Amino acid sequence: MNVRRSAAALAAIGVLAAAAPATAAPSPKVTVPAGLFGKGDPTYDGVWRQSLALLAQHTAGEKPADQAVKWLTGQQCADGGFASFRADTGTACGGKGAQADTNSTAAAVQALAALGGHDDVTGKAVTWLKAQQNKDGGWGYSPGGPSDTNSTSVVVGALAAAGEKPAELRGKGRTPDQALASLAVPCAQKGGGALAFQPDKKGKLEANADATAAGVLGALGKGFVVAPGKARDKAPACASDGKATPARLADNASAHLIGAVSKSGHLMSAMPGAENQPDFGNTADTVVALAADGWTKQARAPYAWLEKNAAKWAQQSGPAAYAQLILSAHAVGADPHDFGGTDLVRALDKLGPAPAKQAAAPEKKATEKSGNSVWWIIGVGLVAGIGVGFLFSGRKKNRP
Question: Average per-residue pLDDT in the chain?
């Protein structure tokens, strides 16, 4: 799977697909609207990819275009939720219309909260998300659906971004932390420390790297954007002694992820029906998860692998893929303008409305870091057209 919410989305709509990069052409039945990032069919990921794109631009120091932000806010349903995509915003959500889901809503909240100035939209969305909490403390992809690690974690990140205290939410009984703990594989079992997406029909928990990376962020109460912090010294190991705190759950999950990428530097696709191939998206998520938990040193190995191998995947897969790589660069303190020779920010910018023009100084430095000195040879007057910014000024279906 290529992004954190893919397992939840596919489970909700009953579809199994290969994890290969999405390269499908736009559906003839769906017109890709102006303001939306990417040219592929947005039916299943329009709001998701837009949210990640705006969040990545903001994190890289850019001001997203008003047109792009307006498209996202215009997707909100009357009750506060967001559907994957509303082709006709004049048609009400629900019934035969678009169906709001927790993942799209949570992604939109994270993006709009980071941008600021959208309290009315995020406020309604947060109210909607709280109302969807299950009795076990977690969230499912669809309202009323069984809780899963991915959905619970992305909602926790959204609530935290909006200034809420998700760890204290007991809307219908238990807390999100308790929901995540119930999905953690015991250390003594195969895959110990990892999280399952959901229990299988017999209640068995099977390790899932996608869910595990998401679960680390959920346990820590963090969202998609993780600022680089002070590295912890000793590598984690799965431990079951003592109190099962959220911090312990995160460390156990991190230990599993470190082991999973230790030999090759990347995760392998584990989705049913997928080819036996590297999983670029979940490897990027692993980088963010490890950095969020303080294992910055351990996160650098999979990040280095991504730098060498992921540029083509992002080019094929589209806005959400570029956003994931930008956020992974931010998490380890790397420069997304120089990702193995690729400027991820400029590549993302080309897939949607151009961001607001940046100040002259950031443009100059970003250009130099990107290795584009040829502009200075041609003439200083051309530099102003590049329009890129710095990385550090801001805070679980990749479609082209």
Answer: 85
